[in-house]
Specification:
The complex is a heterodimer of chains A (101) and B (640).
Chain A lengths: L3 H39 L7 H41 L3 H7 L1
Chain B lengths: L1 H29 L10 E2 L2 E3 L4 E3 L5 E2 L7 H20 L8 H8 L10 H5 L2 H4 L4 H4 L16 H12 L1 E4 L2 E4 L9 H4 L1 H9 L1 H7 L9 H5 L23 H14 L2 H7 L5 H7 L1 H7 L8 H5 L26 H5 L8 H4 L14 H42 L4 H5 L1 E3 L3 H25 L16 H8 L4 H32 L11 H14 L14 H25 L1 H7 L2 H32 L9 H4 L1 E3 H7 L1 H12 L1
Antiparallel strand pairs in B: 1-4, 2-3, 5-6, 7-8
Helix pairs in contact in B: 1-2, 1-9, 9-10, 14-15, 19-27, 21-22, 21-23, 21-27, 22-23, 23-25, 25-26, 25-27, 29-30
The chains are: A mainly alpha (101), B mainly alpha (640).
Chain lengths: 101, 640
C-alpha cells in the first residue's frame, strides 16, 4: 500500500493538468485575493503603489502554489487509490498459489 | 375554410388596431404639435374581397405611399391574403423601400441602409416601412425637407446631441427626427420613458443628452424584441438572457468614466455592482441573479424598464421607500434592513457603520500577516528539507526498521472527522472561490484589463453551472458541519472517560518552540526544539479550524438565509458577516492549500503524503524525528 510510485505518477499527472488548464486562472484568482487584501490595508481605490503591487504579486504566488498543490495532492491521492486497487487485483489468492506449486 | 377566414379577419383587425394606435398614441403623447407636418392622404374605406374595413377618423397615408382607393383595396387584399404565409417566412422589405434603397444601398448617394440587418429586426417582421419613422420625405436628396414642428425643435436638438457607448465606440443619433415616430406605435412606452430619469435627460437642459431608444435597444434598424419581465414577488424565475445582456448597455454610459464625469454620475456604479454578490453571480452565469433592470425597473404596470426613476424619487423601486419591494422580487420577506444591505458601494461602506470598516481592516491585516508568516515558514522549511536530504544522501544510511514500523496516531473516529472536513473544505473552496474571484479588477495594478470570470464560468460547468455550484457549496457546508458536530460529540465522549487530549492545548512552550525551530531552519541554532505529541503547527491547524468553522459556518448561514437574518439582526452585523465570510475564505483556502498541504503532503520528506489521514499511522522514524518527547515516552513500549 505504501508504494510511492502510483501516487508519484498521480501527482505528476495532477501537476501537468494544473499547468495545462489552471495556471492562468490561479494567477488571476491569487492576484484578486492580493488586491482584496490591498484594498483592506491601503484603502480603496487601490493605487499602484509598491505595497499594493507587492500584495498582488504575493497573492499571485500563493494562488499558483495553492491551486498547484491542490492538483498535485488530488493527483497523488488518486494515484494512491489506483495503486491500492491494482495491488489488490494482482494479488493471487493463497489457495491458487499453493495449487500452482 | 372557416379557420382560414378567422385568421384573415384576425390579421385585418391587427392592421386596423396598429394603424389606430399609430395615430392615437402620437396625438396623445406629443399633442397636436407633434402631428406629422406633411399633408397626408386621408384613408376612408378599405375593401377586400372577404371583409370590409372602415378607416378610423383621421387615418392618413404617407406621401410616398399616396394611395388611391382602388390601390388601397388591391394592396390590402394582397396583404391580407398573403400575410399569414409572409409571417411564416422571412420578413420582406416593406412597400416603398425600393425607392429609398435607390440612394441608401451600398455605394449609393445617401447613408447606407443595411437591408440584411433590418430584415431580421422586429420592425421588419411587423411590416414597418421606411417612411413610418422617417416621415415627411419625398424622393431625395432630402436637404431642407421634412421640417420639424417648432414645439419639437428643442427635443430633436437634444436627441441630436445624445451619445452612448456601444462596446468600445461612441454612438450618436443619426436621424433624431425619426425618434418622434417611436410614439406612433410604442405610445405607452414613450410615455413611461418621458417620465423616467432617463427621459428627463432628453427633455430637460441636463449636462448631457440622455439615452435614446437605440442606447438600450441597439441599432434601431436591427432592433430585436425584448422579453417582457414581470417577476411575481417571491417566485424564483430565471432572468431572461436579453435582460442580462441589457446590463452591458447600461454600462455603456454608467460604466464609462468620461461620460459619468460629464454627467455628474458616479463612475463606480458598474464596478461596485460587478464586485457585489449579485454582480459576481451574474458574471459566473447564474440565471437567477439580478442585473440592473431587475432592481431598478418599475413594475410592468407602472412602465417597467422604461420608467426607471432616480433613487431620490420616492416612486423609484430603489428609493428608501420602495427598495424592499424591489428586493422582495427575489427574496420573499425582505425587510428595510435587508434592502439596506445592497448599494453601489464597497461592502464595508454600506450603511456607514464603523463595525464593517473595522472588521474589514482587521481581517485584511490578519489574513495578510498570517499568510506572510506561514509562507515564510514553508519556504525556510523547504530549504531546510533540501539541505537535510542532501546531507542524508552523503551519509548514505537510514534506519530501515524505523521506516517500516509504525504507531497509531489517529483513531478511526478522528480519521472519519478529518475525511468529512477535508472533503467539505475542498468542495467549499472549489465552488466558492470561483465566485469570489469573479469580481472585476477595475484599474488595479498588474491586473487591469484581465478577467477571471470566464474561467469561473467554465469551471462551474463541472458542477452543473453556477446554480449547481451553489448547491454543491451548501453540500460542502453540511459536510464540515457534520464533521464539527461529530468532533464535539467525540470530545464529549472523551471527556466523560477523562481522556481529553490536553496535549492539544496551546502553551507558552509552543511560542518558544516556534522561535527556536525557525532559528534552527535558518541555520542560526544548532539544536531543533523537542516537540511533544502535537507541535505548534499542528496546534495552529487544529485551533484555526475551530475558529474557521465558527466564522465560516456562522456567516455562511447569513448568506444562505439573508432575509431571515436581516429581519432579526442589524444591517451592520450582516455586512460584517459578509466581509468575514469572504476574508476568512481567502485565509482558510490559501492556508490549507499552501501551508497544510505542504506540511502533510508536499514536504520533501513526506511527499506524496503522510498516510496517517488514511490508515491513522506514522512510522517510528517519523515519530522520533517529529515528536521526540512523545517517542521518548513511548520508547519502552516500542522496543518490546
Amino acid at each position: 500500500m505504501h508504494s510511492k510510485v502510483p501516487s508519484l505518477i498521480g501527482a505528476g499527472i495532477g501537476l501537468a493538468l494544473f499547468l495545462a488548464v489552471a495556471l492562468l486562472p490561479s494567477l488571476l484568482y491569487g492576484g484578486y485575493a492580493g488586491l482584496l487584501l490591498a484594498s483592506g490595508i491601503v484603502g480603496t481605490p487601490v493605487e499602484p503603489t509598491l505595497v499594493a503591487r507587492g500584495l498582488i504579486v504575493f497573492g499571485m504566488v500563493l494562488g499558483v502554489t495553492a491551486v498547484g498543490s491542490l492538483f498535485a495532492v488530488l493527483g497523488a491521492a488518486a494515484g494512491a487509490a489506483v495503486g491500492a486497487i491494482t495491488a489488490v487485483a494482482s494479488r493471487r489468492p493463497a489457495t491458487e498459489e499453493q495449487a500452482s506449486r | 375554410m372557416e379557420k382560414a377566414s378567422l385568421a384573415l379577419r384576425g390579421q385585418a383587425r391587427h392592421f386596423v388596431a396598429r394603424a389606430r394606435a399609430h395615430v392615437l398614441s402620437r396625438t396623445a403623447l406629443f399633442g397636436a404639435n407633434h402631428a406629422i407636418s406633411t399633408p397626408l392622404t386621408p384613408i376612408k374605406v378599405m375593401e377586400a374581397s372577404m371583409l370590409r374595413m372602415t378607416a378610423f377618423p383621421g387615418a392618413k397615408a404617407h406621401t410616398l405611399h399616396e394611395r388611391t382607393e382602388p390601390m388601397r383595396a388591391i394592396f390590402l387584399a394582397f396583404a391580407v391574403l398573403f400575410s399569414s404565409s409572409a409571417l411564416a417566412q422571412e420578413a420582406k422589405l416593406p412597400a416603398g423601400a425600393d425607392s429609398c434603397l435607390e440612394c441608401h444601398k451600398k455605394g449609393g448617394d445617401g447613408p447606407e441602409f443595411k437591408t440584411a440587418d433590418f430584415l431580421k429586426s422586429v420592425h421588419a417582421q411587423n411590416g414597418v416601412g421606411c417612411t413610418d419613422c422617417h416621415q415627411g420625405y419625398a424622393m431625395g436628396p432630402h436637404d431642407g425637407e421634412a421640417k420639424v414642428a417648432p414645439a419639437d425643435e428643442a427635443f430633436v436638438a437634444r436627441l441630436a446631441k445624445a451619445s452612448w457607448g456601444e462596446g468600445d465606440r461612441k454612438e450618436t443619433v443619426k436621424s433624431p427626427r425619426a425618434y418622434l415616430a417611436c410614439a406612433n406605435c410604442h405610445g405607452d412606452v414613450v410615455t413611461a420613458f418621458t417620465g423616467s430619469v432617463h427621459g428627463r435627460w432628453l427633455t430637460a437642459d441636463a449636462k448631457v443628452a440622455g439615452p435614446v431608444c437605440a442606447s438600450c435597444h441597439g441599432e434601431i434598424h436591427a432592433a430585436q424584441p425584448l422579453a417582457k419581465y414581470a417577476p411575481k414577488p417571491g417566485t424564483r424565475e430565471p432572468i431572461p438572457a436579453d435582460r442580462r445582456a441589457m446590463a452591458k448597455r447600461c454600462e455603456g454610459c454608467h460604466g464609462n468614466e468620461e461620460f459619468a464625469k460629464t454627467a455628474g454620475l458616479s463612475a463606480e456604479i458598474a464596478s461596485t455592482y460587478h464586485d457585489s454578490i449579485h454582480g459576481r453571480l451574474v458574471r459566473v452565469g447564474n440565471r437567477f441573479a439580478p442585473s440592473c433592470t431587475n432592481c431598478h425597473a418599475a413594475p410592468l404596470a407602472e412602465g417597467g424598464t422604461h420608467a426607471i426613476l432616480a433613487r431620490t424619487d420616492p416612486r423609484a423601486m430603489v428609493s428608501a421607500q420602495r427598495k424592499k419591494e424591489a428586493c422582495g422580487r427575489c427574496h420573499p420577506g425582505a425587510s428595510d434592513n435587508f434592502a439596506a444591505l445592497i448599494a453601489h458601494k464597497p461592502i464595508q461602506e454600506i450603511g456607514g457603520h464603523v463595525v464593517p470598516h473595522v472588521v474589514h481592516l482587521a481581517f485584511s491585516w490578519l489574513t495578510t500577516l498570517t499568510l506572510l508568516f506561514f509562507a515564510f515558514h514553508v519556504l525556510i522549511d523547504f530549504l531546510y528539507e533540501l539541505r537535510s536530504r542532501l546531507a542524508a544522501k552523503k551519509d548514505g544510511h537510514a534506519d530501515a526498521v524505523g521506516a517500516i514500523r509504525s504507531v497509531i496516531r489517529f483513531d478511526l473516529h478522528q480519521r472519519i472527522q478529518h475525511w468529512f472536513m477535508l472533503s467539505g473544505v475542498i468542495l467549499l473552496g472549489i465552488t466558492g472561490w470561483p465566485l469570489r474571484g469573479a469580481g472585476t479588477f477595475g484599474s488595479a495594478p498588474l491586473l487591469a484589463g484581465k478577467d477571471a470570470a470566464p474561467y469561473s464560468q467554465a469551471f462551474m460547468r463541472i458542477f452543473g453551472g453556477a446554480e449547481g455550484a451553489a448547491m454543491w457549496h451548501r453540500v460542502g457546508a453540511i459536510l464540515i458541519i457534520t464533521s464539527s458536530v461529530y468532533h464535539l460529540f467525540y470530545l464529549t465522549f472523551l471527556a466523560s472517560k477523562k481522556r481529553l487530549p490536553m496535549s492539544m492545548l496551546p502553551l507558552p512552550k509552543d511560542a518558544l518552540d516556534m522561535r527556536d525551530n525557525i532559528l534552527f531552519m535558518l541555520g542560526l541554532k544548532k539544536e531543533r526544539p523537542q516537540f511533544d505529541r502535537y507541535m505548534y503547527l499542528e496546534k495552529f491547524d487544529y485551533w484555526a479550524v475551530f475558529w474557521g468553522i465558527v466564522m465560516m459556518v456562522g456567516t455562511g448561514f447569513v448568506f444562505w438565509f439573508p432575509a431571515f437574518f436581516a429581519a432579526h439582526a442589524p444591517s451592520w452585523l450582516i455586512t460584517a458577516a459578509i466581509i468575514i465570510h469572504g476574508e476568512e475564505a481567502t485565509l482558510a483556502i490559501l492556508f490549507l492549500f499552501v501551508v497544510h498541504f505542504y506540511n502533510v503532503h508536499l514536504k520533501p520528506s513526506i511527499f506524496p503524503m503522510n498516510w496517517a489521514w488514511l490508515n491513522g499511522r506514522i512510522t517510528v522514524d517519523n515519530l522520533k524525528h517529529e515528536h521526540p518527547l512523545e517517542y521518548d515516552r513511548l520508547k519502552g513500549g516500542l522496543e518490546k
